[in-house]
Amino acid sequence: MKQLDVAVIGGGTAGLAAYRAAKEQNQSVAIIEGGPFGTTCARVGCMPSKLLIAAAENAHQYEKSAAFGVNLGRPAIDGQAVMKRVRDERDRFVGFVLESVDGIPAEDKIQGFAKFIDANTLQVGEQTIAAKRIVIATGSRPAWPAPWQSLGDRLVVNDDIFDWHDLPESVAVFGPGVIGLELGQSLHRLGVKVHMFGIGGQVGPLTDPSVMAYAKETFASEFYLDPDAKVDNIRREGEHVVLDFVDLEGKAQTIRVDYLVAATGRQPNVDNIGLENITIELDAKGVPVADPYTMQTSVPHIFIAGDSSNQIPLLHEAADQGKIAGTNAAQFPDIRAGLRRTPISAVFSDPQIAMVGETHRQITERLGPCGCFETGEVSFENQGRSRVMLVNKGVLKLYGENGTGRFLGAEMIGPNAEHLAHLLAWAHQNQMTIAQMLDMPFYHPVIEEGVRTALRDLNAKLHLGPAMTQMCLECGPGC
User: How much is the CA Rg of the chain, to the nearest whole Å?
Assistant: First the structure.
């Protein structure tokens, strides 16, 4: 039986971070991985998706170039070349991750799927491992309705798309969330016929009703999008998928597509690791409940991190959680709260979607819908720099607390949202007030001036500043 101080289950972003953090304490640590070592981000997530998005953005330039007097003409899309670059660069990113894995001593890497025998014992193949502390970092996997299994290889997820050698003619995308919007819009702009369906009206991760409505209208003007679809039947016929549905006008329609793309969420990989053999508190989805500041579960020496924790499934969050879990596992029983940063998320669609701090839904649930906070907003449709560049689509909502004037959070769809979100996240993490944010420098003309407009609107509504004016010398034209 192998004896360890700390066993880390999972060799992805969270697992690698946990291993390194625990190893810094000169512990006897091993990392256990049943599949290939490496990260979801590099293999099938954020990096290959951005490669597809980059190709789509280049293909889309011709659509607005004529408005500048620059006639590029409709591009010819070489699907094989597009996907070859996606695969080649994806493999390069994976290679960087594997280089770091290669630096881990061989005796610290255990290949195989781990399963709890009891709270201190793991079974990995024929090997039994006794560990004083354990970190669960098993990641997640795509999830979809069971009946779709009958579609065979006509059912794909994002993991499959990045291995394509050519682009199909048509797809049906289910799930207009982060993955669905990014992949669906990219495929559309690369010449693939896209129909996108959702349930319940949700678009992206947004919770502010007016921002979500803007997003729905914007994307639906580019490709078919029904976020609250009524799909009657899905079946395979030969090498196609056939869908019967009621369209946005209430008419029955039937379409044939090459693939059904399932972007219907991910499931934490905790259902096959033997949790039934230990007494541990689980949430409604069967995931171990953990303190978000220490990553400690109800079993004091067991910690959980990354996508398997079902908290915030983003790479930077997985890395932070892994470091916290690994450090606390190594220092147990001396448990310390780790650094938790301001929540920040982005959807790399066009226009981009971003969220910072507390969401509209969280604030409303915490403070009530009618009091204690106000909303400032700006439209990018007539914002100067956005209009100059013909990227003038979007709306930004900022939320501030009555009385204190503290900045609570933001939701937006618009140009450069990924960059605006970082500025706002830094302000939120520093617990700035709206007035303090307005004291920061703003250049002219830049898209960031739209943030200042929203801040001024919010400051006035909080009764902490003057009423909004249509024009001021400080702002310059079109800010």
Answer: 24
